[in-house]
Amino acid sequence: MPDLATPRPRYGQFTTALRFAVRNQTRNRLAGILLVAFVPVWYLLMQNLVGHQTLSFRLFATGTVLTVDGGRLTLISAGLNSLTLIVGFAVFDAIRKALAFDRRLVFAGYWQHALITAKTLAVTLIAAAVAGYGALVLLAFWRPAPTAWLAILAGYTVITLTYGAFGLLLGVLVRGDLEGFFLIIMGGLLDTFLQNPLGNPLANKPVLQWFPSFGPMQFAVGGAFGHTALWGHLALGLVWTAGFALAGLVIFRIRTRGRRQVSRSLPVVPREVAG
Amino acid sequence: MNPVLKAEDVRKSYGRHQVLRGVDLTVAPGQLVAVVGENGAGKSTLLNCLAGTLVADHGRIDLNGTLGHCPQEPVLSGSLTVEQHLRYFAAAYRLSTMDSGVRLVEQLGYTGFLGTPAADLSGGTRQKLNLTLALLHEPDVLLLDEPYQGFDWETYLRFWDLVRDLRTGGTAIVIITHLVFEQDRFDTLADLTDGRLTARAEIGSTHA
Fold first, then answer.
1. ipTM score assigned to the predicted complex
2. B76 touches A: beta carbon within 8 Å
3. What are the beta bridge partners of residue B173?
4. 3-state class (DSSP) for residue B69
5. What span, in angstroms and rounded, lies between the C-alpha atoms of A34 and A38?
6. Does the predicted model carry a pTM greater than 0.95?
């Protein structure tokens, strides 16, 4: 007989959910291959294409226009670009595939808050790990000062968190794989491409402030080339993260909640099957 | 004996298409009921309404006890092994051990797949795991939607041994099926026709 007399405490569900959520997130082989192969190749390709031409980059917080090495600026931009795609894709895929299973778990008695907290933490861990990896690989192409590297790492971390949350939102919102992948690829490409003044006439224009990667890009470039920490812009990136995550988790909660129209222990007159 | 499950005048439509037009169903502890109907008759809709995974438009469903629900299409996580599924659902049901899960796996004869991810299981074994997850907590009411699809003959017989044991323990079972091979296994057969449930026959005693 299962031990129903002394049920396990509900908080115990959290550790189980976290372990399996992390496992689910890390089981995407394609995302793993892209991370290992695509990121360094993308850095290499972009660096060789751009060379060392000089570019102007506006820091909106101070109004300063920095004159920077275009190759190095493009390395930062390439990192943001590749990492957003990989994290967005991996999280979207894992969340979407697990949604029906999560719903079954909740119907079986799983505490929704345990699942939601575990998924949030799992996405955070994955995003931070991918950002750390991207920043480490960058060192093979460019050795910035430690504080400059930390600024880039912080920018990478915030943008991967944002796109992790975006993947979560699409995972609970979008019905098909194709729609989700398309939105992540188009969104990520447009967003990060527009921030780089290389070949983009809109760069350094205020309209860029309305894109998710604006804050992380400003923080990373400000720290890497301007010796300044634009904390407000980093926080702006986290606002995007929180917005996407909140919307995604609310929809997750709605889509996995029980809809039982059942009352328990109601006295009724017994009868057999009736037509 | 008070029923463990009672549905009254349950109605459900999809747009203008009325699928359930007033279903009544009363199930006593230990009773085995088959709901039979053609493809598209609304059997799965009825079961999902009974399970609470689908909202009925009208009617009342009363459950007096715990519920286990085995959907027609296995709802599993492809990346998790059989054992990890058992662990996850033991946590959902807040069981302190995995003993019941391991026992069910032995009873259904797929112990050799405990370490296999669900994505690598055959259709029949996925169905066994699907069934196991609905049974871990030994529910008072078990709702099964075409449970033996994909089972080989030996597994089919093991399934009925399991049903017998569950009923002995007082579990009421509602099986949705489009084909009934052995009518005498059931206490009640009910036909779902034109959105209504009609009792076909009273076949055996409550614990046949």
1. 0.90
2. yes
3. B32, B142
4. strand
5. 5
6. no
